[in-house]
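## retry 2 of 3
previous attempt timed out at serialization; input unchanged, resubmitting
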Amino acid sequence: MIEDLSVTARTVPLARPWGPDVPANHVLLVTLTLDDGRTGTGISWTPQVGAAAVRALLEHDVRDAVIGLPAHPGVVWDRLSARLGEAGRSGIVPMAMAGVDLALWDLECGGRSLVEVLGARRDSVPVYGSGVNLHYPLDELTAQAARWAAAGHPAVKIKVGRPSLAEDVERVAAVRAAVGPDTALMIDANQRWDLHRARTALRALERFDLFWIEEPLPAGDVAAHAELRRSVGTPIAVGENVATAHGFRDLLTAGACDVVQPNVVRVGGITPFLRVADLARVFGVPVYPHLLTELSGQLALALHHPAMVELVEDAALTDLGLLADPSPVEIAGAELRATGAPTRWSA
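## retry succeeded, writing output
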């Protein structure tokens, strides 16, 4: 049974800030202690806002709710979801629940690797180069893309949504030239467009042979995503800001996306991530886990559909000093493999 919950907060600077207002990421280490003395640790993560609110929720309502519960990820997740529903189903609630769920999976693994416990379906997954780079000047953006291409990444992703569509066209054209015709190119609008602007932008950008457009519209606007998908040729990827299985169900049943991208923290942990993955499998839609490379890579190795893993330059969990050695994964060239080591967080 769960006997206690404690939280340690960390702020980790980014070597490459994600914008003038995002110089660091915020991480909460959540440790569960069982009545037999065993401990398990997980994380909650937010790049910009909400860490203090998540911590308050964990140390008060969540701690009270989990003490005395059996250390079973599914049981605890469902109990917590019911208990915390009054505070919301997205945002800080699943972020807090993720810390608990990841700690319970740490206990479930019992010193084994997560990949071993989940069951690997492949030996490796490709890694694509990604950057939070909308604020980069053009020369810095193309230099970053060229580094990814030189490292052998099969795909790269850049941000779009500059004030002028002409700027986006210029930047995408320059990156396509930098990486060549054989590298898959994804663009990410981070919900900056409405339906009209998304249609207009994609008609101007489709000639660059885009692998997908990510978050072209507000994440909760299912109808607009479905309409956009019917009216453009570029595949639609969405899901990093969708926090519930019901939200993914609505996107999938509406035919609103070609790829789903759950973030293991924002969706509430490994337990709901796996439920979303099973749902997507029924619809024949691939799951590409969002960010958090070392966690996402382990999940991708166990997914039914093949996927790629996102590696934001200089911002993997290892880069941020959040993982203790040995790492649960290794990246050689542009391939990620499991090492067989358990996931251990650095205090």
